[in-house]
Each structure stands twice: as C-alpha cells, then as structure tokens.
Known about the structure:
Helix 4 (127-137) crosses helix 5, helix 8 (300-317) runs parallel beside helix 12 and helix 8 packs antiparallel against helix 14. Helix 15 (526-541) links the parallel strand 23 (517-521) and strand 24. The strands form four sheets. An eight-stranded antiparallel beta sheet has the order 3-2-4-1-10-9-11-15, covered by helices on one side. Strands 5-6-7-8-12-13-14 form a seven-stranded antiparallel beta sheet. Strands 17-16-18-19-20 form a five-stranded parallel beta sheet, with helices on both faces. It contains 17 helices and 25 strands. Among the domains are: 2-237, Glutamine Phosphoribosylpyrophosphate, subunit 1, domain 1; 448-599, Glucose-6-phosphate isomerase like protein, domain 1 (Rossmann fold). The protein is globular. It is of the alpha/beta class. The N and C termini lie close together (11 Å). The chain binds fructose -6-phosphate.
Amino acid sequence: MCSVVGYLGSKDASLFLLEGLSRLEYRGYDSAGIACMSDNELKIVKERGYLSALEHCVYRQGCMGNVGIGHTRWATHGKATQNNAHPHTDCNNKVAVVHNGIIENSSQLIGQLKNDDHTFSSQTDTEVIAHLIATLQNKHNDLNDLVVDLVAQLDGAYAFLALLKDYSETMIAVRNQSPLCIGIGDDEIFVASDVLAFAHYTKNVIFLPDQTFALLVKNTVKVFSFDGQAIMIEPQEVMVDHQIAQKDSYQHFMLKELYEQPQAIINTIKSLPAQFEEQNKKQISYDLTQIEQIHFIACGTSRHTCLIVQHFFSFIANIKTTVHLSSEFVHEQLFDTPNTWYIFVSQSGETADTLHALRHVKKETTACTMAIVNVAFSTLAREVDLVLCTKAGPEVAVASTKTFTASIALLYWLANKCAHKKELINNNEFDNVANQLTHASNVLQQSLDNYRDTITFSLASKLIDAPYYIFLGRQQGHTLAKEAALKAQELAYMPALAVAAGELKHGPLALIEDGLPVIIFSSQNAEVYKKIISNVQEVKARGAYVLAIIFTGQDELATLADKSFVIASVTPLLEPIAMVSVMQYLVYCIAQQRGCAIDKPRNLAKSVTVE
Ligand code: F6R
C-alpha cells in the first residue's frame, strides 16, 4: 500500500526520502516520487516501477533541498503511471502533496474545482488535496485555519504530507485513520507511515493521534485537533528492531520465513508469560475467568488463524466464540453484552478493515479489546486495551507464513491460560502446553524436510498446468483448505476452491474430472477420518488426482491417494501447525515453477492500509 515519508533538517532531504521509502518497500508499491523545496521552488521527481528507477531519475535530474516529502504508490484511483505517481501539485506548482488512503468525495470536489477553472493532470483522488490547498490559500492567511478548513471538506481515510511554496520551511502532516508518525532527531524531523522508515535515526516518536494534524518547522512540531485546538504530545521512546531483514542464502523471503516457523513459535511461547504479566499491570480490569464470549476479527490468513483458534477457546476453555471478517463486521449491529471480548488478529497491525472494525467495537460497546499482532508498535496494538505479540521477527514476503503459525501457537497458549485460571485444566496440563507446541513445531519442520525434494523435483511440475485446484478438509482441515486456496491464488495465480468435504455432494463434485488435482487434509479424529475416506473415494471414482496430507498409520487413505504426505501425530487441536508446512511449500514450488513473483505477488501489498 502507499507509504509517505517526510524530512525537515539541515541535510539533503532526498537522501532520507529514498532511504526511508526503501525501508517501507515491504508495504508494496508500483511507482514512487519525491518533492523537495529548493530555493523556494518545488522540485518534483517521480517514476513508475521500482525505487531504483526513481533513484536514477533523482541523480539525473537532481532534487535537493532541506525539506522534502516522498511516496510509494499502490494504485487505487488510476493506473500505475508516472503521471499518477505522487507527489501531486496544484495548477501552479505551488503545492505538493503525498497521500496514503482514499479521499472518498474526490469526484465531487474535483467537479467543483473544475468549475473554478482548475485543471487536473492525473486520475488520482490525491491531486484534489493540492488544488484545494491552493484555493484555500486565497482565503486563509493562517496555516492552522487553512488545514481546519481543508479537513472539514475531505471525506475518507487518509494520511498526507504537503509542502507549500509560500511556506517554504514548513511541512503539513495530516492524519485521519491512516497511520502517520513523526520522529524527533537531533536538529531534524522525520515523518513516515511507519517508524521503520526512520527508526535507525531516532527512537523519539510522536504517533499522530487520529484526526489531528501537525505543522512542522525546523525543530518544532505543533499538533492540532481537526478543529484547530493545540494538543500537547510528548514523544515516546520506541524500541524497534530496525535491522533490514536479509534473505541470507534463501531464494525468497517466503522460503526463509517458512523455515523460520519453528523458531517463531518457540520465541513466541517463551515470551508469553512475561508479556501476559505486563498486560496484567494495565489499569483496565479484566478477568480471564469471566469471559463468556469472544468475537475474533481479522482478514485473509489472519482470519484463518481465528477460524482455527476458535476451537481452542471453545473446547479447552469452554468459551463461546464467533469469527468475523473485518470488512463485513464493520456493517454489523453490535450488542454491548457483558463478559464479551473482541480479539483482533493482524500480522501488520495496520490493516484498515481490521482497524475500522476495532473502532466500531469501541464506539458501540464497552467490551474488552485485545490485539494479536507481530508488529508491536502498530496502530492496532496502540488502540486496543490489551495486546500480545507474536515474536516471529519481521515478515517480509507478502504471503503470511510464520506469523500464521506463531499466532496459532500464541492463542493456543492463551486458551489454555483461560482454562487454567478457570481450573478446567491443572498445573501439569498447563505446563505441558509449551511441550505440545514445541512438538508440533518440530513436526512442521520434519514434514518440510521429509517432503522437500519430492515436492521440488517431481510433484510441483505435475500440478502447474492444472486448470484449478480443489482443497478439501473437515473441521480444522477445512480451514487449512481455505488457507491453501488463498495461498494458491495469491502466490501461483491459480484458481482454487476450498471445500468442506461434507459439502462435495451438494455441488462441487460436479467439478471433478479426470486428472483434476484434489488436495485433502486428513484428521487424527477417527470419526472425521472415516468420513474423509468416503470423500476421497467419491473424488477418486470421478478421476481426481488425489494428494493427501495424512497422519502416521492412516494406511487406508495412503493407499487410496495418488500421493500422500505422512505427518507424525500431534495434539489433535494442533494438527494445523503440523500439516501446514507441506501445503505452504507445495504452493511455493508451484508458484516458482509457474514463474510468479513469490515475495511480491502482483496487485498485492503486505500492509493493506486502505479499505
Ligand atoms: C495472505 C496474507 C493476507 C493477510 C491479510 C491480513 O498470505 O498474508 O491475507 O493475512 O491481508 O493482514 P494482517 O494480518 O496484516 O492484518
């Protein structure tokens, strides 16, 4: 998604802007640009494609100045062209704007401005901000008044930075929902969508609160609410691991992250007792024994985590659970029922739909909110009552792998913690949780090691030309089927269906034809296993090519399937951790052999900061 960066100081701003943008590359983008104030003139350089293309243009064309703003764009309004790349300006090049988010009433505003003889040169919603600022300059002599008037006219979620030729030493930074933070350095100020852009220069950070703006002049940050009232905010010290993740000897970040899963699980479970105690010190009163209902809310793979862990809470801790898609949940009617918790799961902690869902809960209920995130200083982590972090380390590949399994492990521990507090399990049982998770993560590793060669050298090539895939499962296996189908779509650009095996005869069976790959996730549960055997017989009878991920001793299924992957037994509820790596690696290899951009699949971004 789009990222913004800004710099005010005594150095050449373009150096930080290019570096800061490269540190935010993980968010995904298709074009980039910077603007610097140079001798009271706005100099703008922008280019389609990778940052390296922009860098060449900056070196060729020059873009120096002590105040500057930069942007990487992920197209929403208008194609990924140089013209649509940010910064955008008004008709007279007196205002430059970079923006992350969506101006929902842009068409209406553009219409009004065109009537006043403004000419627009891009198809973006952002350009309207620059034209509006230019118009408002005729009305207001005071920048504070100008911004108050400006934000009153903008609808949507946005974070933007603006430079004005008439205020050549000032930068305007505005935040409505989309994240924006300000780093206070020695004699210099940094601004960015994510602290990672400047964390190696300063640890003193102001996270701009929602619906506020800042006027930045050399060494001074003044923050105001949207109605123009000054707000005092002390910078907080932020300890962020700012090392840039390296691929090491792996061909892709995804492959590296897939192999990092056991360590991510172990680091997470080791950290949990201390993290939990830390949350206990918070002023909010909460009692795990009183929870009667949990609503889990997330998007994509994080939602699959929720679908898996909901069973932990109901079976182990006897708590009623419901799972919601963030984007749908925001339209739901909420009831402020007592002893209800809302748990939001998000790798990035910046997913716009999930943040919107959190704000919906906070507005409509008094319930306790909790976040499970991998990025400790994310917006979600800051806005909830309680937060527990996975310790998976930075996840760079767009497709989530290690944060998926680490968050399952974290929530398995938490469900057991609830059960322990409720005296549903004894001390020994609770102490055994870490062993169960460690064993499951070892099985994940072994399965990967056992099947890596077969998948790489013989299996993936058999599957790359299939018209589509069907993934089948029951219970946890059905959720894994959903995760597999999502991975096949995003990584290999393959149409894939996830079917609850029991639903086959109600429709999807009609799709089965000779040679169609059907991948089934088995279960250690005897009842479920029996039914899975019947399902496999049904698809085999119609010519499907069956791959089965099964557990030790499931010989009948092994005989039926064309190819099976045998996984060592684990605690039944932890089957998803044990089975997932074979599926992840299989899809990784298919994507690789189909020549797909594995770490950065087309059209996708790591951090989805627009709804
Ligand atoms: C798929 C994937 C996405 C994310 C989703 C939510 O591999 O990674 O589906 O899970 O965009 O992102 P977070 O977890 O950051 O809220």
